[in-house]
Amino acid sequence: MIKKVLFAVLFGSVFAVPVFSSPVEIMHRITFLPRLNLNRTLPNRFSLPLQYTFEMKNGFFADTGISFETTTGYIRGYYFRAGWNNIVSTPFGGSLQFAGTQYAEYERSVNSIIIAGNGNFEWNRYFAGFEIGVNFRFLNIDSDRLWNIFYYPDISREAILCYYGVFGMKFFDERYRVFIRFDNRDDFLAGNLGHYGFFFGQEFDINSRFTVKLIPGFRQSGSVALAATYYQAIIYFGGEIRL
């Protein structure tokens, strides 16, 4: 069933790509957003994720990222994603993502195929967005294939709803933005339905190329490893470079 769905998405994507008679404006972004997890039950964790995004003005985009965890000394996850925003001049789009979260210290990983739709809206100085989709998640305990995110064993698999919603405001000629976000996923981890988080973020454009970001919040952690501390604090801080 999953293979049929993936084939339909990929087949449709190929024939949905238009032919351009003139050059298309392309933007490249590099994002470095270190993350600190504070949890009294599980060890505190510090991650160094690096992401690259390729985006066309017509809405097509592709991005990839890798996250290194300094606490364990292992790569914690990486992903590949492609999608299309503002399809036929509407605020809606969609994406297909292949992701893997590695727990090398336990010789296992969780691989995901995420198919999602999204919407992005702006009016005056306000903006909002959402994403909702299905995460086909597979547990991998084969140590020889620990880093293969395209390996989908039948040991344990499930289909989980994944989502996020964001609402924010712009200030100072749109250079400064504040927002709130509610989700059960980030770019490197798609959790179960109850693995939700709430964040209050700030972004400031230093100039046309550089943006600094600070995003503190919390995430429900009791559903993962039956942690006694129900919530964990998370702080993202870093920046983005546009090339």
Output the keywords:
243 residues; mainly beta; Porin; 13-stranded antiparallel β-sheet; 1 helix; 13 strands
Write structural notes for this entry.
The protein is 6% helix and 59% strand. It is mainly β and 243 residues long. The chain has one domain (23-242): monomeric porin ompg (Porin, Beta Barrel). Strands 1, 2, 3, 4, 5, 6, 7, 8, 9, 10, 11, 12 and 13 form a 13-stranded antiparallel beta sheet that branches. Strand 4 and strand 5 form a beta hairpin. The longest helix has 15 residues, at 2-16. The protein starts with a helix and ends with a strand.
CATH class: Mainly Beta
User: Tally of extended strands?
Assistant: 13
List the secondary-structure elements in sequence, H or E. Answer: HEEEEEEEEEEEEE
Number of helical segments with 4 or more residues = 1
Strand portion: over 45%
Task: Give helix % range.
Answer: under 10%
Describe the secondary structure blueprint for this structure.
Elements: H1 2-16, E1 26-32, E2 35-38, E3 45-56, E4 60-69, E5 74-84, E6 92-103, E7 108-123, E8 126-140, E9 156-171, E10 176-183, E11 197-205, E12 210-220, E13 231-242
Antiparallel strand pairs: 1-3, 1-13, 2-3, 2-13, 3-4, 4-5, 5-6, 6-7, 7-8, 8-9, 9-10, 10-11, 11-12, 12-13
Summarize the structure.
The chain is mainly beta and 243 residues long.
